[in-house]
Amino acid sequence: MRKLVLLAVVGLLAQLVDGSLGMAYGVTTTTLLLAIGTNPVAASATVHLAEIGTTLVSGASHWRFGNVDWPVVLKIGVPGAVGAFAGATFLASLDTSTAKPIMSGILLALGLYVLLRFTFKGLRKDRLGTPLRKRFLAPLGLFGGFVDATGGGGWGPVGTPAILASGRLEPRKVIGSIDTSEFLISLSASIGFLAALGSQGINFSWVAMLLLGGVIAAPIAAWLVRTIPPRVLGSAVGGIIVLTNSKTILESVGITGTPTVTAYVLILALWIGAVAWSIRAHRAEVAADAAATDGETERELVGEPA
Question: Are 145 and 188 in contact (CB under 8 A)?
């Protein structure tokens, strides 16, 4: 019973982060399932089945708050569904002992990318309104869907930073569109897993608890996306992913004992530093924007041209 409650809480927290940042539900929940001993294929299948419900509710909530660009959803979601089905069947064909370090390696790389991207780059704002082309979104969707199915998560960490980095769509619509399109990826990946394995290894009570937590959090996250600084949250989530997946990677190369503890301390210190850096950078951005606004207001009052 305690494990089920924990899964519901993790599902809730993961969806809060995913719905407000556009990433990390699958990565976070898959990491937990791997940590408690679930085999990689069952972990990814469990998470994607739960995501069918959470992404449906999340997409509807983002649509309700005006956070969805439907052309982007279709241009990236359909290729993403193809990639997800291919990734699911590929993962199902791997031996468990081979799949676990591969999955953790994918998650670690994604977490490191998210951490560095949001800590040092922030969000680009000089290209807002420029159309996102299919030749950019289709390959991105295909790759993101494949990574998502094989890594147990990755649709958001691949798609959200890439579109944000383009600077062509405002952040809330990037997040809402990625979350909404993820329904297609979750559905396609689940079909792939069930076709390859049936229900083998899938604990449907775990699916239900992850789904319950995610459904509760989805509307809240769609509202929070307007207020939470993505830069700070991105650094925090990226650090969590890196820290939690380091254990499997270190064990797979035979590193244990004192070196492992040292590695954890180092990662934790870097993570705390990254979050602090992001908070300071966000505050500096807010102060700069406020100063620019005050300057424009002052010029208007004295009749000077802006």
Answer: yes
**Token pair of 194 as six digits:** 């069930």
CB 24 within 8 A of CB 153: yes
What whole-number distance in Å separates Cα of residue 8 and Cα of residue 211? Answer: 8
Only one residue has tokens 């539900």, namely 25
pLDDT in tens, 133-174: 888 899 999 988 888 887 666 787 778 777 776 767 777 788
Cα–Cα distance, 77 to 199 (Å, whole number): 25
Q: Which of 179, 183, 185 is nearest to 142 (CA)?
A: 185
Annotated domain spans of the chain: 2-302
- For 20, the token pair is 């407000």
pLDDT tens digits, one per residue of 72-131: 999 999 999 999 998 888 877 765 566 667 767 776 777 787 788 778 876 656 565 677
**154: nearest Cα among 121, 123, 125, 113:** 113
